[in-house]
Design brief:
Number of strands: 26
Number of domains: 5
Radius of gyration: 31 Å
Largest sheet: 5 strands, mixed
CATH class of the largest domain: Alpha Beta
CATH topology of the largest domain: D-amino Acid Aminotransferase, Chain A, domain 1
Strand order of the largest sheet: 2-13-10-3-9
Strand content: 15-25%
Oligomer: single chain
Length: 692
DNA sequence: GATCCTCGAGTTCG
DNA sequence: CTCGAGGATC
């Protein structure tokens, strides 16, 4: 790209980011990233002074105010807070302010949740709500009074009469206060998680586009022109600060402000706490970091404030941030990043799966570079384009996925993605079955499929050959030692040594000899696995752990299974026409017959199925679903416990589910169970039910 | 024929 | 955990 077009792009980008930051109050890039763009722009302008026009972002101090709403100048600046990432940062902050003023040493601290919503400023004159504004750039916001009027949590009139007594009841001596004739408070408007889920569910059922997250939804609903639409969104708010007051007396301690606001009839958080020292404040903050799922809204951290607001004000500012408080940030669980490209992987069944290549970003403590996109329809449906800013979330705190593109951040340079027409591994044309979403590489000799196939064969739920990971599988195939899964059982020590030591010997931690010996032992061990495991391992399309166990129980050996007809197979519960046909098709293929012959010859020909010993039937006819991490039992352990007592374990919550067994950090299953009225129990109760 | 349920398959990072 | 799709059920 030449300098001139780079310059034009930069100008456009900086304008966009200004708009997102100042007007929408929803930046999509970090301050650091923004500064980088602005500096690059300035550098180009320094070189080419003749290019600079009055519309360059460098020629204007702030962003253009929105044309849609009236501007409101705030009576006092609406401040942002400095961030602390972890306890060390928070202690460093405290140490700095303590050195500035030794009163800090004995100061009390108030900890409040930092809700991820939209900051709003509410004006009351003689107790009547007269104006509401967005935060904007902190100096000037937008008048969204008519939208805010529709938010039921906002008192339109402060009930002065009823309130006096309430104040007097709660704190007879502390509040000797008069309601200010002009009172300006600050709060956070947001949509509670559960309401957001319900809203999205309703929209999805109506076939409408769903929202990305509660924050964007709330911000969008408050910043649009039709108050009726705002009213239809479940927005609420919590108030936590007095920005300005005139003609009255208000408390000077944060803790009392919260009580005072509550007494005035404002909604106030009930998770705020006051502490005598920093360590207790940090400890409290950290309990909410772990328990953030218990909060009914999205919180991006907790705020630690010096209770004495006079002292806090005396401490002054660092840049724009007041020294008297700090935002203790939780690790982000949802972030925006750039979609750099889309890779395509080939699975063992030949299915092509698109994988998002992302600009590296930290989510929940780990750096994420990739995310699954499930299938090509998913990309089209969500209208995800290469170059988009995308919202990424780690589902259940583990697997990242893309919620959707941030369409507001589009520059017009994004590319619509076209799915491949040929397999990225072998170059053969891909096929698509009518009515199915998946695209397949149907080349039986596709090298990518062979690797995945062998990986599946040796994986934990299948033949469970420990020590045979992706790397070793790839090397064995590359060296020509493994051409199909049966070759595993005729590998010699020399074969393994040759394959393993072929390249990058230096990176091996263990001596190759030891790897080979361990592997041979693991292979010998695996050759005695029960029939159901072997059937799972074969990787027949549509046959997994459960069906394999049914088939093994029904036929008893592979000879009988390989001769079974479609009709015979369909007699088995859970096997319908499609899977039956898939099984017959699999055994009819010459390559597979060859594999079977080799397995039999190698003595890998089990005739027994695994029988779980049923201790008793205390859990008979009960179906369980497990979510989260249990205190003592592992996932396998729970399954074992339930099944050995006659119960059943499934993966998804439905009306047929008897109990949801709940652990730490549960996923979305909890919400589903609650909405279906499925009883939720813990590990202890499960054990009691089982009679253990 | 529609709906609900269960299963399979693919998924990230350290 | 997610989605798609096969199978069971009404």
């Amino acid at each position: 790209m030449d300098t001139k077009s780079r310059y034009e792009t930069l100008k456009q980008q900086v304008h966009e980011h200004n708009y997102r930051y100042h007007v929408l109050d929803a930046p999509v890039v970090s301050d650091l990233e923004y500064d980088r763009l602005l500096n690059e722009l300035k550098a180009i302008e320094a070189e080419h002074t003749d290019w600079v026009t009055p519309d360059s972002p460098t020629q204007r101090a702030g962003a253009r105010p929105s044309e849609r709403f009236e501007k409101v100048r705030h009576p006092r600046p609406i401040l942002s807070l400095a961030n602390a990432f972890g306890a060390e940062d928070a202690r460093a902050w405290f140490e700095r302010v303590r050195k500035l003023d030794d009163r800090v040493e004995r100061a009390k601290l108030v900890v409040e949740p930092k809700i991820d919503g939209l900051s709003v400023v509410l004006h009351y004159r003689d107790g009547v709500f007269v104006q509401g504004a967005t935060r904007g750039d902190g100096e000037v916001g937008e008048d969204i009074t008519s939208n805010l009027r529709t938010v039921r949590a906002i008192p339109l009139r402060i009930p002065v009469a009823g309130l006096r007594s309430k104040v007097d009841d709660d704190r007879p001596s502390t509040f000797d206060l008069r309601l200010p004739s002009h009172l300006v408070v600050r709060g956070e408007a947001f949509i509670p998680n559960q309401d957001f889920e319900e809203l999205n569910q309703k929209l999805a059922e109506a076939g409408e586009k769903t929202y990305l997250n509660p924050r964007n939804t709330a911000a969008g609903a408050l910043r649009q022109l039709d108050p009726a639409l705002t009213a239809s969104r479940p927005i609420t708010l919590l108030v936590y600060q007095i920005v300005y007051s005139e003609g009255g007396v208000v408390p000077t301690r944060q803790w009392e402000i919260l009580e005072y606001l509550k007494a005035l009839g404002f909604p106030v958080t009930d998770v705020a706490m006051r502490f005598d020292d920093l360590d207790s404040a940090i400890a409290y903050t950290e309990t909410w970091n772990e328990g953030r799922d218990r909060l009914p809204y999205e919180a991006d951290g907790m705020v630690i404030k010096i209770d004495d607001l006079t002292l806090a004000a005396d401490l002054g500012f660092v840049g724009k941030d007041p020294r008297g408080a700090i935002a203790f940030k939780f690790p982000a669980r949802e972030v925006t990043t750039s979609l750099l490209g889309i890779d395509v992987e080939v699975g063992r069944t030949g299915v092509l799966t698109p994988k998002a290549v992302l600009e590296a970003v930290e989510i929940g403590g780990v750096v994420v570079r990739n995310a699954t996109l499930h299938n090509f329809d998913y990309i089209a449906e969500k209208d995800i384009r290469i170059g988009d800013r995308v919202l990424v979330k780690r589902a259940g705190e583990v697997i990242p996925y893309i919620i959707g593109p941030v369409t507001d951040a589009r520059m017009g340079t994004e590319q619509v993605y076209t799915p491949p027409t040929h397999c990225p591994a072998c170059g053969q044309p891909v096929e698509h079955l009518e009515g199915e979403v998946a695209w397949y590489c149907v080349n039986a000799a596709c090298p990518a499929q062979l690797v995945r196939n062998v990986e599946h064969f040796v994986s934990r739920g299948a033949m469970d050959i420990v020590g045979m990971g992706t790397k070793i599988v790839e090397k064995l195939i590359e060296a020509g030692k493994v051409e199909d899964v049966a070759d595993i059982f005729t590998l010699s020590r020399e074969d393994i040594l040759e394959a393993v030591t072929k390249k990058d010997r230096k990176t091996e931690k263990e001596p190759p000899g030891k790897i080979a010996d361990n592997l041979l032992a693991a292979i010998a061990e695996s050759s005695k696995r029960p029939l159901n495991r072997l059937i799972t391992a074969l990787g027949i399309h549509g046959v997994g752990e459960v069906s394999a166990a049914d088939l093994a129980g029904h036929f008893g050996n592979l000879d009988a299974l390989s001769q079974a007809s479609v009709d015979e197979l369909q007699q088995i519960e859970g096997i319908g026409p499609n899977i039956a046909a898939g099984i017959v098709d699999w055994f009819g293929r010459e390559a597979n017959q060859k594999v079977l012959k080799k397995l039999k010859k190698a003595g890998v020909w089990p005739t027994f199925n695994v029988q779980r010993s049923t201790l008793n039937d205390s859990l008979a006819r009960l179906t369980f679903v497990v979510t989260g991490t249990l205190p003592t039992l592992t996932r396998e352990g729970v399954k074992e416990l339930i099944e050995s007592n006659g119960g059943k374990v499934t993966d998804s919550v439905s009306r047929k589910t008897s109990y949801l067994v709940l652990g730490e950090n549960p996923g979305s299953k909890l919400e589903k169970a609650q909405s279906l009225g499925v009883p939720v129990i813990g590990e202890e109760e499960l054990k009691k039910l089982a009679g253990v």
